[in-house]
């Protein structure tokens, strides 16, 4: 590249950054104006205990959003519980009066060989269990969401195997066992962690009227992002150290498979919405040379968001509008239960 071409590229990059900042502040000011206009109609919520009674002006309540998050936490917490302890969550952590109660089945303990992976697994298990207990504590005995049925098994037709087959990690009709090794466990975790980050970020706007819940959700989002970074960094390290494992290639394949499930929403670079909102660990080439892709972001350095419907597309393993499938064979519990028609 000549000096003139490099100067032009630098100026172009500055223009793109300026336009991105302008779009950001325009969006922020517009949102602030909208909030001011609506402030006279907002109903203050004076109690931290959500009441799951939908109003005529909202499709879903804050309680619905918290329940939706709890379904996802049940899924994650049980996966790590099985991997670390050999058992799912205790009955005291999954019972509830709302929805159809079900068991998490098919998991088993991982015989960890890498002490770092074992330590990460134990820590994340405790974190996810804390999330389950925190969300459950926001409800009363009569409004608490029961854990739905969850498939964490290794059957060739089960959720893990179906996802792995779709990504090309195993052949058609072949089982994928996320409990078979440290690396398989990390790939199983990779299926969930990125989705958890995008789910909490996408759900945040629904909690804006209650700053207490918004702050709590932001705290959980940060933890999920830490977890995703741990999993992605470890897979990247192992993939670089032992290329024959093809772990980096596997993450790219999983991300592409997930991306086929959640549709092609119109891109919004400020809100982190895009038709391609999933990225594996494959290295990329920039003006600074070859770099890793530990953190999946858009061009503005903003994490991606998914709507609840898009999240359900992924955990149901179905690009169509449906109310069950994949990791939740009987569907999730609560009012947010149908995936988006993203095909």
For this entry, give a set of tags.
mainly alpha, 8 helices, disordered N terminus, 343 residues, two-stranded parallel sheet, Pigment-catalase-like, single chain, two-stranded antiparallel sheet
Q: What is the total tally of β strands?
A: 4
Which H/E pattern describes the elements?
HHEHEHHHHEEH
Percent of sequence in beta strands: under 5%
What count of domains describes the coordinates? 1
The separation of the N and C termini measures 42 Å
Helix content: 40-55%
The overall average pLDDT, rounded, is 84
Question: How would a crystallographer describe the biggest sheet?
Answer: 2 strands, parallel
> Structural class from helices and strands?
mainly alpha
Number of helices: 8
Contiguous uncertain segments of 5+ residues: 1-58
Q: Shape, please?
A: globular
Whole-angstrom Rg: 21 Å
Strand order of the largest sheet: 1-2
Kindly describe this structure:
Helix 3 (115-137) runs antiparallel to helix 6 (211-241). The protein is globular, with a radius of gyration of 21 Å. It is 48% helix and 3% strand. It has 343 residues and is mainly α. It has 8 helices and 4 strands. It starts with a helix and ends in a 28-residue tail after the last helix. It has helices spanning 3-38, 62-85, 115-137, 159-167, 182-203, 211-241, 247-259, 308-315; strands at 104-105, 150-151, 284-286, 289-291. It has one domain (58-315). It holds the Pfam family Ferritin_2. It comes from Sphingomonas endophytica.
């Amino acid at each position: 590249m000549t000096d003139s071409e490099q100067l032009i590229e630098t100026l172009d990059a500055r223009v793109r950054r300026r336009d991105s900042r302008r779009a950001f502040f325009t969006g922020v000011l517009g949102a602030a104006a909208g909030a001011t206009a609506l402030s006279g109609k907002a109903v203050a919520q004076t109690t931290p205990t959500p009441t799951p009674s939908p109003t005529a002006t909202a499709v879903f309540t804050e309680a619905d959003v918290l329940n939706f998050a709890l379904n996802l936490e049940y899924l994650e917490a049980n996966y790590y519980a099985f991997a670390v302890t050999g058992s799912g969550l205790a009955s005291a952590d999954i019972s509830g009066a709302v929805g159809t109660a079900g068991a998490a089945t098919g998991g088993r303990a991982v015989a960890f060989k890498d002490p770092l992976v074992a330590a990460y697994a134990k820590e994340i298990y405790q974190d996810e269990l804390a999330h389950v207990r925190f969300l459950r504590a926001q409800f009363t005995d009569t409004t608490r969401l029961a854990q739905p049925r969850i498939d964490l098994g290794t059957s060739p037709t089960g959720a893990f195997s179906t996802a792995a087959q779709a990504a090309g990690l195993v052949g058609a009709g072949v089982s994928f066992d996320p409990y078979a090794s440290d690396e398989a466990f990390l790939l199983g975790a990779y299926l969930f962690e990125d989705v958890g980050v995008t789910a909490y970020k996408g759900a945040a706007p629904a909690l804006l009227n209650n700053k207490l819940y918004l702050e709590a959700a932001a705290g959980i989002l940060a933890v999920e992002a830490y977890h995703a970074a741990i999993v992605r960094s470890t897979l990247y390290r192992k993939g670089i150290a032992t290329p024959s494992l093809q772990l980096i290639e596997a993450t790219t394949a999983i991300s592409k498979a997930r991306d086929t499930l959640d549709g092609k929403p119109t891109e919004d670079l400020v809100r982190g919405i895009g038709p391609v909102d999933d990225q594996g660990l494959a290295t990329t080439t920039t003006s600074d040379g070859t770099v890793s892709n530990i953190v999946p972001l858009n061009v503005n350095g903003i994490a991606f968001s998914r709507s609840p419907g898009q999240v359900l597309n992924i955990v149901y393993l179905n690009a169509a509008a449906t109310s069950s499938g994949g990791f939740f064979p009987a569907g999730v519990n609560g009012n947010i239960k149908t995936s988006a028609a993203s095909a």
